[in-house]
Design goal:
Helix content: 40-55%
Largest sheet: 6 strands, mixed
Strand content: 15-25%
Strand order of the largest sheet: 10-7-13-12-14-15
Shape: globular
CATH topology of the largest domain: Dna Topoisomerase Vi A Subunit, Chain: A, domain 2
CATH class of the largest domain: Alpha Beta
Distance between the termini: 38 Å
Oligomer: single chain
């Protein structure tokens, strides 16, 4: 990250701390106001073509013990991040949680990692600075890329050029925590196929799908990390590549697609940076379960509740999603993408995906 970006991040953090001080100085109860992060407070931004937070707000205020503790933790975290930037160091979200154990105020220590993660998200929103610019890293996501792409990656030992087929093993190229440090040099790909599971990703690579169809295969590793979503957005915006998302046929997998295309509720403040609205769903559909007579599992109560919730989710208010969800609720079944192997190991690469890609006009 450039020194200019580091300086800007530091300045915005200090401004937040100064705002607390100014509120004290004016005799006001310190507070911090943020958008309410629920699905009822996301709205469609037609100009950006993404889902963003609406006008509802929540306030972190010191007028209660609970609120005062939240602001105390924010102040300690701001000081930690400022020192980290000053020293040009970095840390992981997990390390921040444990580091708080050493803070001199027990009231400022985090009780769970979810709490520290949420505070970093709060600071992102109010400062309008991404956590990557705070030098905060997630744990390794394990997401990998395989395909006809030559890129240049910044490392502590200087830049290095990597071809994501010729210079990597079967595992592929591991996506760095901040993919904005990558420079695209050459690309011979025609589209991006992002895949939910490692098993299916391995099947595609073993069958040479990336070679035969000039595809960049991205392993999402379940719910995709921010770095993965950012890289796919860059593939679309900068390389003009269609992006497709291949998942299981269950409500949780539909949310994986939703986070790629529409943005997630918890990171709606970053939708313009992370979401790819043009991404197309090529995952297993409830209608495929019926058409291909695939092996299935029954929907659990939590699956049914999740599907019914998606029918009310503004990100899934299209005729396509309503139809597919209603089909799934009607048949009461779910299926994994690996279930396509019931029709042969090569069925997914020889028939299913080529047929779907042709229907979508991608090949």
């Amino acid at each position: 990250m450039s020194s200019d970006t580091s300086t800007e991040a530091q300045e915005k953090l200090i401004d937040l701390a100064a705002d607390f001080y100014d509120q004290f100085d004016r005799g006001e109860i310190p507070r911090m106001t943020l958008p309410t992060r629920t699905k009822t407070n996301i709205e469609y931004d037609e100009d950006a073509d993404v889902w963003v937070y609406g006008d509802r707000e929540s306030t972190r205020s010191a007028n209660s013990i609970r609120g005062a503790r939240k602001l105390l933790k924010a102040a300690y975290t701001i000081e930690f991040l400022d020192n980290q930037l000053e020293e040009d160091r970095s840390s992981t979200l997990r390390e921040l949680y444990y580091l708080s154990e050493s803070w001199d105020s027990e009231e400022a220590q985090f009780s769970t990692q979810d709490e520290s993660n949420q505070l970093i998200e709060d600071l992102e929103i109010v400062s309008e600075v991404r956590r990557e610019d705070f030098h905060m890293r997630p744990e390794e996501s394990g997401a990998k890329v395989m395909g006809p792409l030559l890129l240049r990656e910044q490392t502590r030992r200087g830049d290095r050029d990597i071809h994501c087929q010729k210079d990597v093993g079967q595992g592929g190229y591991q996506i760095p925590n901040n993919p904005d440090t990558i420079e695209f040099l050459e690309c011979d790909a025609d589209f991006v196929l992002s895949v939910e599971t490692g098993g299916m990703r391995d099947r595609l690579v073993e069958n040479g799908f990336d070679d035969e169809y000039n595809a960049i295969v991205v392993h999402l590793g379940g719910q995709p990390a921010r770095a993965t979503r950012r890289l796919m957005k860059r593939f679309h915006d900068e390389l003009d590549l269609p992006v497709t998302v291949f998942t299981d046929a269950d409500p949780w997998s539909y949310r994986i697609y939703g986070s790629v295309a529409y943005g997630s509720i918890k990171s709606a403040h970053l939708s313009e940076y992370l979401a790819t609205p043009e991404a197309q769903f090529i995952g297993l559909r409830p209608e495929d379960i019926v058409d291909y007579d695939l092996p299935t599992d029954p929907l659990s109560d939590s699956d049914i509740n999740a599907l019914e919730s998606e029918l009310e989710d503004p990100r899934f208010q299209t005729d396509y999603w309503k139809e597919q969800i209603e089909i799934q609720l009607d048949i009461g079944k779910k299926s994994e993408q690996q279930a396509l192997a019931s029709r042969g190991l090569d069925f997914v690469t020889d028939t299913y995906l080529p047929d779907r890609l042709e229907e979508m006009g991608i090949i």
